[in-house]
From TrEMBL:
Protein name according to UniProt: Winged helix-turn-helix domain-containing protein
GO annotation, biological process: phosphorelay signal transduction system; regulation of DNA-templated transcription
Pfam family, one: TPR_19
Segments passing through the bilayer: 116-134
PANTHER family given in the database record: TETRATRICOPEPTIDE REPEAT PROTEIN 6 (PTHR44858), UDP-N-ACETYLGLUCOSAMINE--PEPTIDE N-ACETYLGLUCOSAMINYLTRANSFERASE SPINDLY-RELATED (PTHR44858:SF1)
Molecular functions per Gene Ontology: DNA binding
Length: 538
């Protein structure tokens, strides 16, 4: 249990016990009400432990009579302050209380064995949940060679250069994924497992692949030195390795050479179309490429300031090379997320710009999977809701890149919205089969599909997993409330309604149905019936 004068690290935020203050990753003081600071103090004193609702009420409001709503409001305020990435750290344990999972500001480094055990347990839990929710028929995966590209080590001696080495590895992932005879693990999965385990055999087992690609990048001035190796996942031995040294402009030649060598060593059969696509360079401008990689790294941080910086990087890449399709597609995603997260006061203009860049990306590079994904993602959102157009774009993205698991997951969302829950469930089976470490949001379409098919236990399992990782997802809360209504679990529904209202949104059936992006009448009725059974007012 941390002492009262210690500083607690919460995903880069630093919480001081004396005085009670929360500082963001840049060191700025975060504004929180005194009650919320006291709630955070109690939770941090018992970090990692379940703190009951009654205990929190007694510690924070000892001499004052307040309702449960006061506590829920404080929890909501803390989560909002910490942002979407840190929301999963403050977990709700229904009908019991809350748990804050944090570390001391300068913790002792855990042993590799401990880290590996934690990673293995987490992955096994995710796989077990996937197995529970998907039938054996749906769990079948294609019998093709499997490979994962690990993050390239940054040997430049400058921490700020990690975006470049990571970006080079991801570019290999993107290109390898377009080969039909390879199953390529996503960046999120391979990078996550690589952080927790050093033995290549273990990494291969956890990612369920036969081969690994590893490498390093040393970038000094305008020169590059890059190493790359293909590793046998069964014994951890190198099958092939090489190094490349030259000017920064040679980075494009490096990619082509490594791709060709991997295809040769693995004896992969390429169609004529695949050969042509692999030979296409996104840009020939070194500075445009650098800004593109920088923008992708920034876009991964879900904050308003880094979203703005990502836009600047992609805009500079486009200024350097107006025909850089991938940069247009990435800029479209950044603008779309700005509208979705409420980081702009001019949603209409922001979305118009997003559509413009997505359509430009598709026009510039009709065979670029990410361009179709970016446009499909936009068309699938509630503020546009062109489900037919979105379906066509996702289908094309998957046709071009059979390993594009995010495209599978978004396509499943559209299928469910169109009244095709069974198809959506099958599509999610493909996404889970191809991605051994799925991101938390994959459990949303999985939960929706099971809910509309009437499998409320499977829906609850998926939505609970989702909300444990991000408790502020309003649509997940809405559907889980309806799920509990159908299951007759009214106490659980009541608890969730308080969590939902604490986000500042009304919990009436009319208000909820206005924001539910489902047009299929039987599915809408299933939500309405569940909300009524849960006791929500009209």
């Amino acid at each position: 249990m941390p002492k009262s004068d210690q500083i607690i690290d919460i995903e880069g935020f630093r919480f001081h016990q004396r005085p009670l203050e929360l500082h963001d990753p840049d060191g700025n003081l975060v504004s929180l009400r005194p009650q919320s600071l006291r709630v955070l103090s109690v939770l941090s004193e018992q970090a990692g432990e379940l703190v009951s609702k009654d205990s929190l009420m007694e510690r924070v409001w000892a001499d004052t009579h307040v309702t449960d709503d006061s506590l829920v409001q404080c929890i909501s305020e803390i989560r909002k302050a910490l942002g979407p990435e840190a929301g999963a750290l403050l977990r709700t344990v229904p009908k019991q209380g809350y748990r804050l999972d944090v570390s001391l500001a300068r913790p002792r480094r855990p042993s590799l064995l401990t880290t590996v055990r934690i990673a293995v347990l987490a992955i096994l839990a995710a796989l077990a949940l996937s197995a529970l929710l998907l039938t054996p028929r749906q769990q079948a995966a294609s019998e093709v060679q499997s490979i994962a590209v690990l993050p390239f080590e940054n040997l430049s001696g400058i921490a700020g250069q990690a975006y470049y080495s990571n970006g080079l590895a991801e570019e290999l992932i993107v290109n390898l994924s377009r080969i039909a005879d390879l199953r390529v693990v996503s960046r999120a999965a391979s990078f996550s497992v690589a952080q927790s385990a050093s033995d290549p055999r273990q990494v291969a087992r956890e990612l369920r692949v036969s081969y690994l690609v590893d490498g390093s990048v040393r970038r000094e001035g305008q020169t590059l030195r890059i190493t790359a190796a293909l590793i046998d996942g069964a014994n951890g031995e190198n099958i092939w390795a090489d190094s490349y040294a030259g000017a920064e402009a040679d980075v494009f030649d490096f990619h082509e050479t490594v791709l060709s060598e991997l295809v040769r060593v693995l004896s992969v059969r390429l169609s004529q179309q695949e050969r042509e696509r692999l030979g296409v360079r996104g840009t020939r401008d070194v500075d445009a490429f650098d800004n593109y990689l920088r923008g992708k790294e920034l876009a991964g941080f879900l904050t308003a300031s880094q979203n703005e910086q990502a836009e600047e990087a992609f805009a500079e890449a486009i200024r350097r090379d107006p025909d850089y399709a991938a940069a247009h597609a990435q800029l479209s995603i950044v603008l779309s997320m700005r509208a979705e997260y409420g980081w702009t006061s001019d949603v209409t203009n922001t979305l118009a710009r997003a559509v413009l860049h997505a359509e430009r990306a598709v026009a510039l590079s009709p065979d670029l999977p990410f361009a179709h994904f970016a446009l499909g993602r936009l068309l699938s959102r509630g503020f546009i809701a062109d489900l037919a157009g979105a379906s066509a774009e996702f289908e094309r993205a998957i046709e071009l890149d059979p390993n594009y698991t995010d495209a599978y997951a978004f396509y499943a969302i559209v299928q469910v919205a169109n009244g095709q829950a069974e198809d959506g469930l099958n599509t999610m089976a493909e996404a889970f089969a191809r991605n051994p470490v799925p991101p938390y949001w994959y459990y949303m379409p999985l939960g929706l599909a099971n809910f509309y098919l009437g499998d409320y236990e499977a829906a609850e399992a998926a939505l609970t997993e989702l909300l444990q990782r991000n408790p502020r997802l309003q649509n997940a809360l809405r559907i889980l409330i309806a799920t509990y209504g159908h299951m007759g679990r009214l106490d659980d529904a009541e608890w969730l309604v308080m969590e939902y209202e604490a986000l500042g949104v009304p919990a009436t059936i009319t208000d909820i149905m206005q924001v539910i992006n489902i047009e299929h009448p039987p599915y809408r009725e299933a939500v309405i019936d569940g909300l009524r059974l849960a006791g929500l007012p009209e």
